[in-house]
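User
Class, as today's exercise, I want you to study this protein, comparing sequence with C-alpha cells, and judge whether sequence predicts the C-alpha cells.
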Amino acid sequence: MAVVRFKDFGEAEVPVGTSILDAAVKAHIPEGSACGGVCACSTCHVYVLRGADLLSEQEDDEADILDKAFDVRAGSRLGCQAKIVRDGEVEVEITRESVQAYENEHPQERGKYTGAKR
C-alpha cells in the first residue's frame, strides 16, 4: 500500500497502481477532473513535493497536456496519469487551477476551498 498526502487537505492509503486522481477521489479531496481523467485537460494538475520516484514515468501525452496548464513547475504532473508504482509515501500539492476546476464541477461545494462566492 502507498500513502498519498495532499498538502492542506488530507491523505489516502491506496494500492500500487492507483493514480493520484483516484486517490483524491477516494479521500474526497478537491482535485479537478473536467475530462473524467482521460488526459484531455489539465484540471488535475498537481505538484509532486515528495515521492516522485514512486510514480510512473511521465509520457508524451501527459507532457503535451501539461503545456496547457498554468504555473507548470519541475514537479508538475497530471493526477490522472501519475500512477503509484511502489509502496511508500507521496506528497502532492493540488494547484489552484485544479481546486477551482473541482468547485466548478461540484457547484454544491463552490467557494468551500477557494472562498469564491457562489
About this structure: Residues 51 and 90 are 4 Å apart (CA to CA).
